[in-house]
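2024-03-11 09:14:02 INFO receiving multi-entity request
2024-03-11 09:14:02 INFO entity count = two
2024-03-11 09:14:03 INFO echoing inputs for audit
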Amino acid sequence: MREVYDLGMSSVGIVAFISLFMGAVTAIQMAQNFQGADIPVPNYYVSYATKVVLILEFSPTIISLILAGKVGSYIASSIGTMRVTEQIDALDVMGINSPSFLVMPKVIATIFFNPILIMISIAMGLLGGYLIGEATQMWSQSDYITGLQMPMATRLFVYTFVKTVCFAFVIATVPAYYGYNVKGGSLEVGRSSTAAVVWTSVILIILNLVLTQTILS
Amino acid sequence: MIEVKNLKKQFDDVEVLKGISTVFESGKTNLIIGQSGSGKTVFLKCMTGLIIPTSGEIFFDGRDVVKFSYEQRQQIRGEIGTVFQGSALFDSMTVLENVRFPLEMFSNVSLKEMNKRSEEVLERVNLTPESFHKFPSEISGGMQKRVAIARAIVNKPKYLFADEPNSGLDPKTSMVIDKLLHELTVEYNTTTIINTHDMNSVMEIGETIVFLKDGYKEWDGDKNEILTADNESVIDFVYSSKLFTKLRDVLLKEKQNK
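2024-03-11 09:21:47 INFO inference complete, emitting structure
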């Protein structure tokens, strides 16, 4: 449960904040693009397009990248500190399988909580779009809700869910690998934490392309 | 009893242990001494199973642990208690949880019984109940060492290892830790092996002493023999302080007079 809090619950605030504002920005950009289009686009497409952007890309990918920074650095530095302070040696000498003992709870907590965070992100993003519409009157409340109710193909949801789970696995395991294999002192812990965030982000970006090509094409 | 035969350990091109053979007796505090970089920690880690030796044999009461399978090695680890140089307490656990942890891993008793046993050993190492629910960062270095000792003995180990248990402690607290380790060794009849370069510890609890230099066993004996040892490396190590140099002169004069 502590892992769920450290790796999931503690990220709810930042995810909600970013998503609320990014949802509002996305909705404004959609409205601006539609207004400048050669053919008239109904206003309810603003919320539909915002919804599609949030569900397909912004929430699963961009939020995962943010979590790679926040959660990834936490995992790498906490396990790395355990390594340099001999806490992992203490586990090993007791006969405990330290990789499994340290990494598995983090993988489970992240895979369990990442989809929840992504759902919160989608909901907050859509709320952001709704609130900015209310504030600016660029589109009506009923148009926004109509757009939200427009159907999306099931495989798009499957695609998002698969991405979310795969990204969660990467967010937990890559930093854990870097933290577990730290050699040296506090300076090396910092370096491994930075390397963990960089490589987690790189892997997420590449995996995003691979999964998109595999599932959507 | 732990018997080591021709133990060697090589890291890439560097040979750290160059064929060490010695015996550590049970019910005694056995000290491994030597300068930094002499191979003490690698030697200790080979015995605790944290490092696999390149060659040689390590017998724990006749059982060659080097040849053990993974399962056998895991099993014998339940008989080992280790006190690390920096205490290695788990930051996220309280003092009581740290001490209870090995019981949670290796015993099937109830939580109530585990807490009772943990509190017993914490009291045995002279810690008061007020500290039981504090986190390691909230207690002093000396108290952390005591918690580490309590965690190491909570499972009543047959073999107790301590890597520089006095590092970072003041002389008075160091003496308390030394005495505690010695008392526990006698009380539990453990084979206790302590890495140290602290001469106070050597004189206090050195019932058996192994002196390492550059990966070799250079000398062995006890605390009474070490002060008048005629090995140059031991003399260099022991008499690196002015106090001990003067003491040596007095002892040698006494020896000549006899």
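2024-03-11 09:21:48 INFO post-check: Residues 2-216 of chain A form one domain.
2024-03-11 09:21:48 INFO post-check: The radius of gyration of chain A is 20 Å.
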